[in-house]
Amino acid sequence: MPIDTTANIGRPRVISTVQWIGLIIGIIVFLIPFFIEFQNLSPAGHRMLSIFFLAIVFWLAEVVPMFATAVLIILLEILFLSNKGIFIPHCNPAVFTPVPYKKLLAALADPVIILFMGGFFLADGATKYRMDRNLARVMLKPFGTRPSMIILGFMLITAIFSMFMSNTATTATFMAVMLPVMAGLPKGDRLRIALPLCIPIAANIGGIGTPIGTPPNAIALGALAKASPDGNAPIAFIQWMTGAVPLMLIFLTVAFIVLNLLFKSDTKHIKIELDGSFDKSPQAFIFYATFAGTVILWMTEALHGINSNIVGFIPIVVLSCTRVMGISDLKNLEWHVLWLVAGGISLGIGIGATGMGEWFVGLFDWTHMTPFVLVSMLTLASLICSTFISNSATTNLLVPIALSLTISEAVPLSPVAAAVFIAVGSSMAMALPISTPPNAIAYACGEISARNMAITGSIIGGICWLIFILIGPSLWEYLGILPH
User: Which pLDDT does position 2 carry in this prediction?
Assistant: First the structure.
C-alpha cells in the first residue's frame, strides 16, 4: 500500500518522555565539567569532557536525530576548542594549542567519508538498475528447493551484497525478494520465522567483510587515519577483507546452524519464481562496468598503489559525468550516515587534541590486563552497547577512548586491533528490533516476535563473540595485519 508522505506535514513532532529526560540530563552532564574540577584534566579537556558527556546522553536517548547529535558535536568543538571559537579555554600553549577550526569542519569531507559516499553511489545504482534483484535471481538458482538450502542461499547472497552495499538497503532489497517465497508457506511453518530472520542476520554479518560494509568500519578507519602520523589508515581495503572475510564466513556458518536448529521446517521443497531480466540500456552498462572496475581497484590496491579512498571517488565522478546518476539519485543518498561518521571523526580529533583520552587512560590501572582480556572487554562492550543504541554511535564513543589507551602504550595492544575489534563487535549485535535498521525492517514483516529475535540474536552474537576473541587476534597476526 502506498505511504502518504504528506500526512505529517504541518503537524508538530511529539517529543517522548525519554527524549525530554535525555535533554535535561544531557544539559546537566554538559555543565558538570564547568563547575567540577577533575584532577589532572586540562581546562580544554574539561570542555571536551562536557561535549563527550552530552554526546553519550543524546545518542542513548535519541534526543535529536543521531546525525544531528553528530553535527552538534562538531559545532560545539569549534565553539569551545578551535582557534575561531568564542569560548576558548585559557590554557598554557605548551599544554594545549587550539584545534584549527578547518580541521574540525574537514571531518565532513574526510577521505573515509568519500570512500563511503562512493559505496553509496554503487549501492543506489545497483538498486536503480535492478542489478541487485537480477543477480539475486541468478545466484539463488543453484541452491535448489530444500528449505535449508534456500536459507543458505539467501544468507550468502545477502552477506555478499552487504559487503559493498548498505546493510539496510541490502535487507530491504532481499526482504522484497523473500516475502513472496514466505507467503507461499503454510501458516505455522517455522520457516516463516527463519527466512525473514536470516536476511538481517546475514546483512549484519556481511557488513564486517569490507571497510564500506557498515558505518562502524568507516568510523574505525577514520579514527585510525587521524591517529596515524601520515594521515592514512594503517590498513588497506584488501587487508581488511583478508582478515574479515574468513571471520564473516565462520559467523555465517554459526548463524546458519543456529537458524536451522531453532526453526526446523515441515516443508520439503520450496519453489522460487523470480522473473525479470538485466537492464541492457547504455546507462546500465556504464554502471555495470563502473561497479566492477571500482571493486577490482579496491581489491588490488597493493598492485596499483591508488588509495582506496581515492578509488571511492571514481564512481562518484564517472556516474555523475555520464548522467548515470542524476540529481534525484543524489537526494536518495544516506547523507545522515555520512554526517554520523563525520561526527565520530571529529569526536576523536577533540579527544586526542585536548588530552582527554590520556586522562581517561590514567584513571585505571591497565598494567595487569592482558591483551586477550582487553580485546574481550572491548568487543563485549561494543556488542552490548550496540544492542541498545546504534552501532555507529557505539563505535563513535568507544573507538577514541580505545585509541587513547593503546597509543599511550598503557597496554600491549595495537591501535588497529582496538579500533577494528570494536567495529566488528558492534556488528554482532542483532538481538533486538532496535539493534540495527536491518532488524527493524525484518521485524516489520509481522512474522517475527521480539522473543524469537532476542533468543536467536543473543545465541548467534554470543557464539560469534566467543569465536572472535579466541581466533580473531591470532588470525590477524598470522595474516600480518596486526603486529606480533
Answer: 31
pLDDT at 198: 92
CA angle 226, 231, 237 (to 5 degrees): 95
Give the side-chain half-sphere CA count within 13 A for 175: 23
* Dist CA 249 CA 156 (whole Å): 9
All residue ranges of the chain with pLDDT < 70 are 1-13, 87-96, 230-233, 271-276, 302, 361, 364-367, 389, 408-411, 434, 483-484
* 356 contacts 408 by C-beta, under 8 angstroms: no
> Residue 439's pLDDT is what?
83
* Dihedral angle of Cα 134, 291, 336, 342, to the nearest 10 degrees: 150
For the CA atoms of the chain, what is the radius of gyration?
A: 23
- Residue 34 has a CB neighbour count (10 Å cut-off) of 11
